[in-house]
Write the structure tokens for this entry.
Amino acid sequence: MVHAHADRTVADQINAARKLCENAGERFTPLRAHIYELIVRAGGPIKAYDLLDQLRPERGSPKPPTVYRALEFFARLGLVHRVEALNAYIACDHSHPGHVAEFFICESCDEVEERHAHDHVDCLPDGFVINRSVIEHFGQCKDCAQAA
């Protein structure tokens, strides 16, 4: 479970994504909207094939490349992040330039919390331009650590 969007409804997040796409001159097609909604509703990391399984009944059995293209589209616009260690995707509510996601992954319950990694952007070597960053920390969430 992710805590990044607790104060926003699914509809708010979808509308914000639609507006961000329009402002970027991109199309927020019905299929993209549906895939994005599934990601947001997951409330945490979701794998591409899990998205594909959820799409089948309603969208005429899209093929894996369709889902991966949508995920790449969302990642390019900063709407989702790939959690490398879990090979899964997570909705991001920090859509702004220079956002570097930092993930805290509980190895006991698989809860993922996203934070904005402010200090990493400030310590770049002169002239270095980040294209993509993934910062993942592994351990135990507060609840699992207390239960141990």
About this structure: The chain has two domains: 10-91, 101-147. Residues 1-5 have pLDDT under 50 and may be disordered. The helical segments are 10-23, 30-42, 48-59, 64-76, 118-122, 142-147. The domain at 10-91 is CATH 1.10.10.10 (Arc Repressor Mutant, subunit A).
